[in-house]
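Our preliminary data section would be incomplete without showing what the modeling component actually yields. Below, a chain of 236 amino acids is followed by its predicted structure, encoded as tokens that our downstream tools consume directly.
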Amino acid sequence: MTIQITKKITGYAVARADEPAPADTAKPAGAPTEREKSNVIQMHEKLERPETLRGTTYKIKTPLTEHALYVTINDIVLNPGTEHEHYRPFEIFINSKNMEHFQWIVALTRIVSAVFRKGGDITFLVEELKAVFDPRGGYFKKGGRYMPSLVAEIGDVIEQHLRFIGMLPDTELDARQLKLIEEKRTEYEARTGQNQADTDATYPDGAQLCYKCNTKAMIMMDGCLTCLNCGESKCG
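Predicted structure:
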């Protein structure tokens, strides 16, 4: 590689092969060297599949089908035993006794698996799949969460898995938000006479759908809609 010298040469020295390379004063302490960086294995499409992969299976049971779907995501371990060790999804399988959706499910799993093995930022899959709407209408999961389609719930499972392996940040509410939600729930039950402990429902009867978390958990309190699931409020 040719390097153009634009400043006046004031001196020079010949480096010997047995001499250590000069320390890079600009490199922060503890930062990986170029050699260390080059040895870190990242996900790419030419990475060979190991004989054994760690798998996690998720169950999807919708009110639209008699049989459940079982989504299995297999992870590969990169840089095992080092500080750069991490899990990355390698392939996905979906099984069910119901053969109605067999054709498009096989196609979906092959495409998603190919994206997994491609490497890079694969988190876009979550939003793309969750944005698919069934023209016949969606359904509510147990707990009151709305799913616009079966494909969207598969995307929800992939999102759950990516959070599990650390590719997406956790979105759990902090202690202050949990306390506020619990206070709102207690106040609402006291005003309406409802007690969720006496029912199988997760949220009060008559709750509206929250546009933020897609859960039927919005209640009217003091003239303001408040979500008992994610804490979203029309009043800020």
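The first helix runs from residue 34 to 39. The CA atoms of residues 224 and 234 lie 6 Å apart. Preliminary results of this kind motivate Aim 1 of the renewal.
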